[in-house]
Specification:
Number of helices: 0
Strand content: over 45%
Order of helices and strands: EEEEEEEEEEE
Helix content: under 10%
Shape: globular
Distance between the termini: 40 Å
Radius of gyration: 14 Å
Oligomer: single chain
Length: about 120
């Protein structure tokens, strides 16, 4: 079992920044690919950014140039740096990990709310 705890959400004005954190209860980076997802009210959950066990990163086109995913292996923590936030970034953001060898092994965090509003 792996517990994931997200933090860092909140209310921010358009153009502002937030840094989300996802802390894992144990070492995950050797075995799990990691993703940040978000779900806005009335919409489906969408993938925002990923980082693989090898450290390769990718972000969705909608956030490219504004969001960055990174990790701190020593802290078992993944980050999502969000800059130039827009009202359409408002959503609950979730951390997800998927086992590289056994993809059916998936864990989700509880989510953290991000509201972008003036």
């Amino acid at each position: 079992q792996v517990q994931l705890v997200e933090s860092g959400g909140g209310l921010v004005q358009p153009g502002g920044s937030l840094k989300l954190s996802c802390a894992a209860s144990r070492n995950i980076f050797s075995f799990y690919d990691i993703g940040w997802y978000r779900q806005a009210p009335g919409k489906q959950r969408e993938l925002v950014a990923t980082i693989t066990t090898g450290g390769s990163t990718n972000v969705a086109d909608s956030v490219k140039g504004r969001f960055t995913i990174s990790r701190d292996d020593a802290k078992n923590t993944v980050y999502l740096q969000m800059n130039s936030l827009k009202p359409e970034d408002t959503a609950v953001y979730y951390c997800n990990i998927q086992h590289r060898i056994w993809p059916a092994v998936v864990y989700w965090g509880q989510g953290t709310q991000v509201i972008v509003s003036s």
